[in-house]
Amino acid sequence: MNIVMFGAGALGAYYGGRWAEAGQNVSFLVREKRKKQIEEQGLIIHSVAGDYQLDHPKLIVDPDEAEACDLLVLSVKGYHLNETLPILKKFVASGARVLPLLNGIEHIYRLQEELGEEAVLGGLAFIIATLDEKGHVVHTSESHDIVYGPLHPSQENLCAQLEQVMQNSNMKGNLSRMISKSLWQKYMFITAFSGVTTAANLPIGRIREQEDTLLLFRSVLHEMATLANTFDIDLRDEDIEETMSRVSGLSFEATSSMHQDRRKGLNLEVDHLQGGALRLAKQSGLSLPHIETLHALIKPFESGNPTTGTK
């Protein structure tokens, strides 16, 4: 399969590297700075699932440099989505299909509107990985999963091809026939997990110790399930309980990528995640008071280190 990874951060470099390891034709569409770093330091994966070094990665900075593309995997942050649209349209016009691996749900509707429903598959990534000072991937958990599935009947054949690719790759792939529900289930979890850990500036273990704070977490899940229901996605109490069980099994120091970004003074995806939920709720005439409060608390940190008002 001809695969273009749009972005070569920890997620894009890991999955793209694993597909290249399995013999797929993988190119990485990156910025000049990242291209230079990979050329100087290499594309190397340090992983509990086995290390891998891609000796001659195909790096491109201009979409016109890409070879034939069957599948474009979009692995950028939500706040970069708008700037990717002109490039995505070029690839789709040439016959590519897009597999977005962003958190959230609003981007799916936006991409379908901009690119056409036939062009956009449903996709989720479950991985804990980061880049070290050399730009190498450091993958530290057993999880390195991609869940994917068709959002349009015309995508069935491509999903079947991708299933074969996954079987030969050192990662876990799961073809979901209910990908829309899977997307909303993760969105429900990540809205609560990222929102509460970032607003509280605490790992999940500290949050579990506080009954009131854990109740806030559950309340956000309830609000997200109600929102999903208005989009004809059947999330029920058992989905909430399954999510709470997952949370209880996380390590004490586990936290969200948004909370990690807050700690590092980096840009946050609060508008893409919590803000997206509020926009969708407004369309549906819903009120999400707990999510609205989390959004307001996190918003001052959205653009990195905020001024404190003190000297």
From TrEMBL:
Gene3D superfamilies: N-(1-d-carboxylethyl)-l-norvaline Dehydrogenase, domain 2 (1.10.1040.10), NAD(P)-binding Rossmann-like Domain (3.40.50.720). InterPro entries: 6-PGluconate_DH-like_C_sf, 6PGD_dom2, ApbA, KPA_reductase, KPR-Related, KPR_N, NAD(P)-bd_dom_sf. Its EC number is 1.1.1.169. Residues 179-300 form the Ketopantoate reductase C-terminal domain. One of its GO terms (molecular function) is 2-dehydropantoate 2-reductase activity. Pathway: Cofactor biosynthesis; (R)-pantothenate biosynthesis; (R)-pantoate from 3-methyl-2-oxobutanoate: step 2/2. GO terms for biological process: pantothenate biosynthetic process. The keyword NADP applies. Keywords: NADP, Oxidoreductase, Pantothenate biosynthesis. It catalyses: (R)-pantoate + NADP(+) = 2-dehydropantoate + NADPH + H(+). GO terms for cellular component: cytoplasm. The keyword Plastid does not apply. Residues 3-151 form the Ketopantoate reductase N-terminal domain. Belongs to the ketopantoate reductase family. NCBIfam families: apbA_panE. Catalyzes the NADPH-dependent reduction of ketopantoate into pantoic acid. This is 2-dehydropantoate 2-reductase. It comes from Fictibacillus enclensis. The lineage of its organism: Bacteria, Bacillati, Bacillota, Bacilli, Bacillales.
